[in-house]
Amino acid sequence: MKAYLGIDVGSVSINIVVLNEAGEVITGLYLRTKGRPIEVIQEGLKQTAESIPPDVKIAGVGSTGSGRYLAGIMVGADVIKNEITAHAVAASMVIPDVQTVFEIGGQDSKIIIMRHGIVTDFAMNTVCAAGTGSFLDQQASRLNIPISQFGELALKSTSQVRIAGRCTVFAESDMIHKQQMGHQIPDIINGLCEALVRNYLNNVGKGKEILPPIAFQGGVAANVGIKAAFEKALGFPIIIPKYFNVMGAIGAAQIACEEVSRKGETSFKGFQITNLPYRTGSFECDGCSNVCEVVEIFEGEKVIGRWGSRCSKWDITGENK
Amino acid sequence: MQKLTFPRMGESWRTFKMLLEDLGNEVVVPPRPSKRTLDLGVRYSPEFACFPLKILTGTYLEAIEMGADTIVTSGGIGPCRAGEYAMLHHKILADLGHNIKMVVFEPPRFYPFNFIKNVYILNRARHSIRGIIALIKKAWRKLQALDNAEKLSHVIRPRELITGTTTRVYRKGLEWIDQAYTNEQIIDAETAALEALRNVPQNPEAEVLRVGIVGEIYVLLEPASNLEIEETLGNLGVEVERSMFLTGWTRDNTWTETTEGMTVKAAAEPYLPELVGGHGRDSIGNTILCAKRGFDGMIQLAPFTCIPEIVARTILPKVSRDYDIPVLTFFLDEQTGKAGMTTRLEAFVDLMRRKKHFRQGNGLLTG
């Protein structure tokens, strides 16, 4: 049986999925990046190789996320795609007539506007990471509430508390202020969810025509409080796909499937790469006044990838034009 | 003898260097903006001033280290605050203990005496009026040659067979034009540079997208301030047409307005009938003109906190809807990272490619 591998290397999590030819998920993994993408990718691939049936043959690989070049070089990806396209493709696999995709991950948030199955507009958060997963994580641990229960608590709220959501620093001090005034924790958390949604819609979603069906994906979609706040603010139902936290990887696998059908065969190096030694190194280029920091990735002693310079002098990214 | 320097904008320094030297001055060529330029600029500029002010503060400080004592720059009369930057820079530099002379050119159309007085200050070699006019004409020709080579490089790059060839050939061509000192030499060097670019091995079947670039002049013209967006797009298979070149801008602001400028104004009229300063109106007008010419998308470049471009940014979604052309905006400052920009550009290119395929009735999911 043929299958397609998708790897999404994000700031907070690394997701690996295997899709069958019909686009159904055979196995999906959600692992924390823990600042060590190479090790976690290897670990994830090891687990994936163990969990798929032995007759499954990987016929194509796609990588996405901020670490897409790293992952792509390591595994021999057939396609290295940006997160926006990957998420859009995955959303339209689940909801064919989707018109809006909200994606909130660890460090960034995006909105993707689609019409008739194609992306017509998109935006990502620009100057500020307020309202992304990392901030919610941090607040949950400050309040000593497991992040998995954070959203449910918000639903128990009985009265309105308005939290300043413009910036995480202001939001946090405002939350502490409200807590010292004697407000209930569920009300504060609900206020935070509404503030983050307001911030998202006013910043990332500014000037965009948000029409249903709306898909909400990324790690933060697990938070029912945020989902409820979106529904309240927009007046539309929000659809959370079953595999909401690995949608980027699903999109990458699907794109790989299309790419391989075009070029004939995969360049996947095989699961044995989980046993190869990888290391990275860096140096400063002294070619011009930019003094770029160039990063190299080695497989054994061989340089397989290099990037980071502003000109393309040193680049080996494995991506074709 | 006075040692002159001036703002660096792309490759135009080659022309200014030649002209100021021809007039009998010693010239300190401003260095290409680097991390150090930015560090200096950010340290000594007001935090909420726009990116061009900060880069120029850094550039001036570096040029002063190299011996410059006089800065030749432009003023401005519109609502954009850049018109005040010469005075502000003068004060910042004075606070840092640098006694620098500023020669500020206001638009000659409105301030002819300022122009004559400044030319007099710069004319150390005591050329006749006729001599000066000939030198300016020659410099103008060089500027055109530089612009023409750059324009052609934007057309060739997305079609090149081997990534990087166009940039290499273009750099060589720039050197040829740089070394040319007479009108004949400039024309020869230009011809040779354009010929060399045309000879870059190309893929005739490359599926090339066309994107227009609009926005604030400094971040458009100085690649170091926009993270070399044009080169990046070229490498993604996109032909870039920048709405603004120094030759175009100078024409608009000297003796008469070009017909091009008039059309841009007329195009923007229904959306923005006012001059909002800077190039806000041009960004809207040019977006409409490019949409009418069948471009696949537009990119707006703006310095963070730039009011004219913020005004344009809020109007562009409507233009984008009315003319069915995708628009992507980048606000640039010293915090801008190339990774984030690359992700957005790649996604934008996918968007345009799929839209094009969709229009052509090709049901592919990805480009």
Automatic annotation (TrEMBL), chain A:
InterPro entries: ATPase_BadF, ATPase_NBD, CoA_E_activase_dom, Dehydratase_Activator_Redct. Residues 5-256 form the ATPase BadF/BadG/BcrA/BcrD type domain. The keyword Iron-sulfur applies. Pfam families: BcrAD_BadFG. Gene3D superfamilies: 3.30.420.40. Its cofactor is [4Fe-4S] cluster. It comes from the Bacteria. Keywords: Iron, Iron-sulfur, Metal-binding. GO terms for molecular function: iron-sulfur cluster binding; metal ion binding. NCBIfam families: CoA_E_activ. This is Activator of (R)-2-hydroxyglutaryl-CoA dehydratase. The gene is hgdC_2.
UniProtKB/TrEMBL annotation, chain B:
This is DUF2229 domain-containing protein. Coiled coil: none annotated. It comes from Pelotomaculum propionicicum. It holds the Pfam family DUF2229. It comes from the Bacteria. Residues 11-71 form the DUF2229 domain.
